[in-house]
Design brief:
The complex is a heterodimer of chains A (about 260) and B (about 300). Chain A contains ten helices and ten strands. Chain A is α/β, with parallel strands linked by helices and about 260 residues long. Chain A folds into two domains: about 230 residues, 3-Layer(aba) Sandwich (Rossmann fold); about 35 residues, no CATH class. In chain A, the strands form two sheets. A six-stranded mixed sheet of chain A has the order 6-7-8-3-9-10, with helices on both faces. In chain A, strands 2-1-4-5 form a four-stranded antiparallel sheet, with helices on one face. In chain A, helix 3 runs parallel beside helix 6. With about 300 residues, chain B is mainly alpha-helical. Chain B has two domains: about 160 residues, no CATH class; about 60 residues, no CATH class. In chain B, helix 2 crosses helix 8 and helix 5 runs antiparallel to helix 8. Classes of the chains: A alpha/beta (about 260), B mainly alpha (about 300).
Chain lengths: ~260, ~300
């Protein structure tokens, strides 16, 4: 459904950040993109949503396609109209707007006010706590509530594809469970395609159908989530388990460092 | 020491309120731009002056009746707002604030020069078709021009308050002011909203130009009312419409009281700087103004 073909991204005309990334997010599935800090995950999302333009970045090679239509030359607001919504890392709510106003702003691409109302009611049904706090300035919400708000706000444009950037970042385990429960329901109940960027690989592989691993602006590994979970390199470097599948003691790390096989 | 003359106080107060509302109208133009685009428009006074010239010029040259010349001023200022945003401000998006500030200061000089070139240096009149006979309410005399001006101000201040709180376009505009990048990801065409903000400021300036032009006459000096915008918006808060109203009223009243009570002792002139003294005090105590948004800090 959403496909990146050999995408190269250059910032400021000289800094090569993505070095030929290809990935596919299948319709109605959760696809996860794993990787360490600075691997290029967020840049990949911005290449899709068109927000690279605002940061002096550019797709210089390759293409981003949604159902065969090129997205990489569109302005961000046109990408939203095609049905792609991005949720930023770090819970970027409109702080000075109330919860409900945030949702209304999120529905900007919809013409009909009745659709907007219906969308707001749907979001409140998924996140009852937001309904309770509908008139509160979003800046005063708790971290978990803000994360729910930004996801709800992205849903207001009635997207086919939703791009989630680190939804678990800085949240309590219980809140994370709730958020991930909602993500799963998006897929199950509304058939929304999800591209999930996460640093928490265990969490992401648990919920995803398919996964990609990124390092240094390249995809180094891909496969069904189940097989990635079994992959010994993933276990070692992303899940913190040893080959036997048990938690590794940090006492051992100095003596032995496994080499990543994909580097060879 | 004469006994306290409440009638005199009442006159100063009502005059202050009338003038204050008209300051608020001009300050509204400034607030609109700051709210939506984060740019500080130092050319607000020149906008008002330019609008006054359009109104006076069209009445004089084309013989247009008052309402038509006011329409010309509004249409002309909308066009000017759109045009300036496109040509001058848009290339500066994403640049440091100081670049935008300098650009608007330059713009102010250009507008003053252009107006003098086009219309000459003489003072022109905008003639509002209302009687010169002041309305007498007890001891208070209200010139109809001021009443109309204050009324227009109130209507537009209320309209814009509604617009920002209730309409989807207004909410989107506030979203743009909050975060441009996130707004883009919500499908909001940020540039279009910048242009809209400048056009709205143009409308408000046009009304200000007509009202103030009627009272003071139209020439280069009309741009000086723009200077009063700064104490008004600092007092009220740079991004608050309510703040523009309250700030305008405070400045209007302080000015009149200073003129009435202090000038006799010091020989005049306090009217012009009293609002600025107040502004400096407010900056020290409450830099974001009475209604300005405070940064929300989460701990």
């Amino acid at each position: 459904m959403l496909a990146l073909n050999n995408v190269e991204v250059v910032y400021d005309g000289v800094i090569l950040v993505l070095k030929g990334v290809s990935l596919n997010a299948e319709e109605g599935q959760i696809t996860t993109l794993l990787g360490a800090n600075g691997a290029g995950k967020t840049t990949t999302l911005k290449a899709i949503s068109g927000l690279l333009h605002t940061e002096r970045g550019q797709v210089t090679k390759g293409s981003v396609e949604l159902d065969g239509e090129r997205l990489d030359r569109l302005q961000p607001f046109d990408v939203v109209k095609r049905g792609v919504a991005q949720v930023f890392e770090g819970r970027r709510v409109f702080e000075n707007l109330s919860v409900e106003e945030n949702l209304i702003a999120g529905a900007h691409s919809r013409r009909n006010y009745a659709d907007v109302r219906a969308g707001i009611d749907r979001v409140y049904a998924s996140f009852p706590v937001l309904k309770e706090r509908r008139h509160v300035s979003a800046g005063y919400l708790s971290g978990g509530e803000q994360q729910m708000l930004v996801i709800g706000r992205a849903l207001m444009s009635d997207p086919k594809v939703i791009l989630l950037d680190e939804p678990s970042l800085g949240l309590a385990p219980m809140v994370i469970d709730e958020i991930f429960g909602v993500i799963r329901r998006l897929k199950d109940e509304q058939n929304i395609t999800v591209l999930l960027v996460e640093q928490n690989a265990a969490l992401a592989l648990d919920i995803a159908d398919h996964g990609y691993v990124m390092e240094n602006g390249r995809i180094v590994l891909e496969g069904p989530a189940e097989s990635l979970r079994q992959n010994s390199d993933i276990k070692e470097f992303y899940l913190g388990l040893n080959e036997a599948g048990t938690r590794r003691s940090y006492r051992d790390t100095k003596n032995y460092r496994r080499r990543k096989r994909w580097l060879s | 020491m004469p006994e306290f003359e409440w009638q005199f106080t009442l006159v100063l107060l009502t005059n202050g309120i009338m003038i204050g509302l008209m300051y608020a109208l001009i300050a509204l133009g400034f607030v609109l731009i700051y709210k939506a685009t984060d740019a500080i428009n130092f050319a607000q006074g020149e906008f008002v002056m330019f609008a006054g010239f359009i109104a006076a010029g069209s009445a004089e040259i084309l013989g247009a009746p008052f309402w038509l010349s006011a329409m010309f001023a509004i249409i002309g200022m909308i066009a000017l707002g759109f045009g300036l945003e496109r040509v001058v401000l848009r290339p500066l998006i994403g640049r440091p604030v100081i670049a935008v500030v300098m650009a608007t200061i330059g713009l102010a000089a250009v507008l003053r020069g252009a107006a003098t070139m086009a219309f000459g240096a003489g003072t022109r009149a905008v003639v509002m078709p209302v009687s010169d006979e002041p309305l007498e309410l007890g001891p208070v005399m209200l010139p109809p021009v001021q009443l109309v001006g204050a009324g227009v101000s109130l209507v537009f201040l209320a309209a814009f308050t509604w617009f920002f709180l209730k309409s989807r376009t207004g909410i989107a505009m506030r979203a743009v002011a909050d975060s441009q990048q996130v707004s883009m990801a919500m499908g909001i065409n940020v540039r279009r909203y910048f242009a809209l903000a400048w056009a709205m400021a143009g409308i408000v300036s046009a009304l200000g130009g007509v009202v103030w032009g009627t009272m003071l006459g139209v020439d280069n000096q009309l741009a000086l009312v723009g200077l009063k915008v700064f104490p008004v918006v600092i007092l009220g808060g740079l991004d608050s419409i309510m703040g523009a109203v309250i700030g305008g009223l405070i400045v209007g009243i302080v000015e009149n009281f200073a003129a009435g009570y202090l000038d006799p002792y010091v020989g005049g002139g306090t009217k012009d700087f009293a609002p600025y003294v107040l502004m400096i005090i407010v900056l020290m105590i409450r830099p974001e103004g009475i209604f300005g948004r405070r940064r929300i800090e989460r701990v």
